[in-house]
User: Fold this.
Amino acid sequence: MTGPAARLVVLAGPTAVGKGTVAAAVRERHPDVWISVSATTRPPRPGEVDGVHYWFVSEAEFDRLVAEDQMLEWAVVHGRHRYGTPRGPVEEALAAGRPSLLEIDLQGARQVRASMPDALFVFLKPPSWDELVRRLVGRGTESDEERTRRLETAVAELAAEPEFDVSIVNHEVHAAADELVALMTARA
Assistant:
């Protein structure tokens, strides 16, 4: 699955749609796919490991990365914390010919489209609004106020679906992961 035709695939979608879960299933089932680890200023959730789920960095460290143009994209998400994709590892994976995946938010996807328009942009969407709400509430990781903020953001995120090259409905995690990998390797 490696070779010079490796293409960057950007996976985005609304909060709680399961982007991280689908990316984890890709990592587990398709270890040849390189998956970027984002940096964030938010604190880890229970069970998250620095360098595996995210690079958890201070505000000052994030400022340094941005100032030194070491971020491919970055944004303030849900009005609170910054998230971004370190540029170097993405460029290295693509240069090595590895199928490469960024799992990022809508703002980040728009920035990557501006700088890397040849990437494939995949929108992950929920089977329904009710299922999205159920998944967000079921996580149990956000306060009522944070859930309300995330659901308000999700309305705008869902409206952005037409900006993407293709959509995948996340009915079942492994099926969505396999569909995503099939898209990643179709041109390789």
